[in-house]
Amino acid sequence: MDGGGQVISRVVLGKAANEMISANGQWIGLSNTGSVDAYNSQGAIVKTLLAAPQALVDQKLLLTPLSDTHIMLLKGRTGQAEILDIAAGTDKQVLIAPDDFATALATYSNPKQAVIVFSATSDKSGYAFLSLSGSKLTDGGFIIKVDQAGNVVQHYRCVLPTRKRYAGAGNPEGFMLSSLIRTFGNQLYVTDKQGAVAKYLLP
Amino acid sequence: MRGKIAIALALALASVTEYPLHAQSIKLAPVKDFDLQSCLPAEPVIVSQAFVVTAKGLYFLVSPPYTSAAVSQYIVKTDFNGACAGTITLSEHVSPLWLSVNSDTFSVLKRYSTVRLKG
C-alpha cells in the first residue's frame, strides 16, 4: 500500500509463515509447522534451513536475526535455541541461560502453559536480548542479554511506567505489561499490547 | 474491554510466584514513555503486537483485538521520543504479528502471502 493505503505488490509464499525476517537480502520465514525456510523475492522456497517437525515444537518459537548471516530460532520455554548460519546452511544448538529459564519456569504452577520469553531481539553486535516472564511487576521487566553461545552477559531490570487504565486486582499500581522489546544502538524500547511504550538507554 | 484485558493480564502475571532478583542486574529507569493512542483515531482499542525500530523512527502495526471488515488496522510511525510522525490506515486485514520496514516500503503478512506496502 502507498501512503493512501493501497497495496502496490503481492508475493505469494511457498509456505504459510507465522513470522518473517530479512537477513542477508533473503526472506527467512518461520512456517506454521515450525520449519525455517528461505524465500526468494517471488516467494518461492529456495532453501529449508531447519526442517519441521522440531523437538518441543509445542511451545512458542521466536525467530530473530543476529547478524546478516546468522539468525536465532528460540524455543521459548526451555531456552533451547538453534543458531542458523544462512550462508553456510548450518545450524548449531545452544542452551540459553538455563538457570534463568529454569527459575522462571518453576514459578508457574502449570509448566505446560508457561510462556517464558515474551519477546526477543538483537543488537548490531550480534547479542540477543530476551524479555523473560516470571518476575513481579514491581521489580520491573526482566531482560537478559546473551551471546551467540548462549551465555548471559547482562541482566537488566527495566522499571515499568504506570498507567491508571491498567490498575486493578494484581496490579494496583497500574504498571504497563511488557510485551515486545527492540533495540536501536544503545536505545532499548519496551512496549505493551495496548500502545504504551517505554524507552531506556543501555549503559 | 481495555480494562478487562489489563486485569486479565495482571491476574495472569500475579499468579506466578516471585522471581528471585539477580544481584548483578542493572536497573534501568525509562528516559521516556508514551502512548500510541494519541496518534490514532479515537475509536480503536489498540493492540500492538509488532513493531520495528529503524534510523527513521519507530513503526507500530496496530490492530484491534478482534479483526473484522468493520475495523481498521494502522501503521503508526513515531520519532524516538514518541511524537507522532504519521499514521496509515491499511486497506485490508493483515496478520497482526509481523511488520517489516525497508526504506519507504512496508511488508506485512497475509495468511498465506506477504504483501509489500509503500509508505
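Chain A touches chain B through 72 residues (CB under 8 Å).
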